[in-house]
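Hi everyone,

Forwarding the result from last night's run.
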Amino acid sequence: MKPRPWITLSSREVYRNPWLRLREDVARMPDGRTTIYGVCELPGGAGVLPFVDDERVIMVRQYRYVQRENHRWEMPTGGIHPGETPAEAAQRELREEIGYEAAELVSIHSFYSSKSVCDEICHLFIGRGLTRTVAIPDETEFLEIAIMPFAEVLQLVLSGEIRDAMTVIAVLLSARRCQGSEA
């Protein structure tokens, strides 16, 4: 038997800033009891694994305040702005973070970033046919940019050195596509 849905009885905003909204719901569970449930609302995310050619990708590194570290590589990623499609957000992130645009964006996957507490859906792309533009990072971004062999990036994922979920998923799916000659 399929699980039955919970019913939201009330909802109140607890906190909001430009990047997220936190709300607290009272929900009725299938057995009739009620519970409090915290939900983090996020606008969704987009990330691009930008291939310079068949063997190399562009990666970024920046200080990540929540994790308190600045040494892990990741692909260009960011939030989807109101009115943007995931592909438009992906192109914007490429321009902002690495100063490139992709002639071709291939959608490779969408996933829930944390299905039990967040409503965020992340959209992943492979970018090809890169052309140089001007990088204009957000005011909170201080980035190091590097062109790296894809094989090295894959090893960093497999060893656990790269931990960003969007990057891990995109790199593993790209490696699988390369093995199947679908890249």
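The longest strand covers residues 100-112.

Cheers,
N.
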